[in-house]
Amino acid sequence: MLRARNKRINTFDENLKRLVQEMFDVMYKTDGIGLSAPQVGINVHLMVFNPAGERGEGEEIVLVNPVLYKASKKTLFYDEGCLSFPGIYADVERPASVKIDARDITGAKFKVSLSGLPARVFQHEFDHLKGVLFIDRMTDDVLESIQSQLQDLEKKYESRTGLPTPESVSNNQKRKAAVGFSQR
Ligand SMILES: CSCC[C@H](NC=O)C(=O)N[C@@H](C)C(=O)N[C@@H](CO)C(=O)O
Ligand SMILES: [Fe+2]
């Protein structure tokens, strides 16, 4: 599901509102600060986030069909974690600020400029909407430093599901080579 193609949303109804509420519930319960629909098995262009990470604190942001139209040349490294890779944190470089066009939960268009942690979370989730994962953006050295943790996750997946992992850690090296900032 994380690598599948995601579809734009055209219907702004009660089902969408319910999905958004369920995504916030999952995000807060799992100590997240952002969540994309493909992470909960729904392949559509939808993300929710709240950099405060606590219900009732900070601002809850919902972006439907977001488009990133400007990213700063200045980039920053940040020790990122992903809810789809529990317990793994590693440095990822991303533009410091971004400008976005999106729709809200009612379908109304809006523009927003983000910097700091909100810009970081947005870009992490926006990548999910394109099937790009944070491991694809790590340098070889950083990826090497978390290799054993990734392999542990693979083993856990295989023993729980009885299935081989859909993509192996070694394949990620090849995929990463194909992903540049130009794909944002
Ligand atoms: C810095 S972008 C991280 C976004 C990510 N969303 C989806 O995968 C996420 O919420 N990751 C969590 C592991 C995370 O960053 N949690 C916070 C708060 O607990 C943390 O600092 O670990
Ligand atoms: Fe993630």
From TrEMBL:
Keyword presence, Ribosomal protein: no
Biological process (GO) annotations held by this record are: translation
Return the EC number. Answer: 3.5.1.88
**Family matches, as InterPro entries:** Peptide_deformylase, Peptide_deformylase_sf
Recorded GO MF terms: metal ion binding; peptide deformylase activity
Annotated keywords: Chloroplast, Hydrolase, Iron, Metal-binding, Plastid, Protein biosynthesis, Transit peptide
Region described as Disordered: spans on this chain:
157-184
Needed cofactors: Fe(2+)
Location relative to the cell: Plastid, Chloroplast
* Catalyzed reactions per annotation: N-terminal N-formyl-L-methionyl-[peptide] + H2O = N-terminal L-methionyl-[peptide] + formate
Q: Which GO terms describe its cellular component?
A: chloroplast
Looking up CDD domains in the UniProt record yields: Pep_deformylase
**What does this gene product do?**
Removes the formyl group from the N-terminal Met of newly synthesized proteins.
Q: Which family does it belong to?
A: Belongs to the polypeptide deformylase family.
Protein's UniProt name: Peptide deformylase
